[in-house]
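Structure tokens please, single chain.
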Amino acid sequence: MERITIKAYAVKHKLSIFNVMKMLKSGKVKSEVFQEKGREVTYILYDDESEKEIEDQRKGTTFEKVAQEWYKRQAPNWTEKHSLGVLNSLNNHVFPDLGEKPISDITKQDEIKTFRKLESAGMHETRARVGQRVVAVFEYAEIEEHCIGNPAVGLNKIFTKPKPKHFPSLPISVLAEFSHKVEAETKATPITKLAILFMIHVFVRS
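Here you go.
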């Protein structure tokens, strides 16, 4: 059998040191302690068969698989409409490019290439929302130790920001007239009228 240090093994398989230690503790990989220059050094022992098993497991942990796990955990906290919107955005804009890639192999450049397509199409708001969801998927993946680092963090800085939406407003000069029309309105319920008048008197515009 071949031998390799814990750190080198972690780098080779794109794993965290903590994850490798868990594998040692569970018996998924074997180790042996050697004396080197008066100190003990732990080496991982491996052969082609064990290496293939570990690598197959890593490659099978794709972005789409992890994203689906993340989605299933988060969806119960969302409304049905929002839940469907999140899943559709991943299906339409992320999975076609990144879905089948091992999540530990995905780089910032992979994500930039994917997001550039949305930016080029002028879909800036969609790009921003999808970006937030990809960040969240990688945060989950880090916690579950499927990858090291979050390549999606900070990418918003290089993309065109969505333009803010400006909603219609009434000039102050017509507010009095508008208030009288609200009070005189016969089709609206008293609660609706009070709600509108309340907002007029207490709203704050930033």
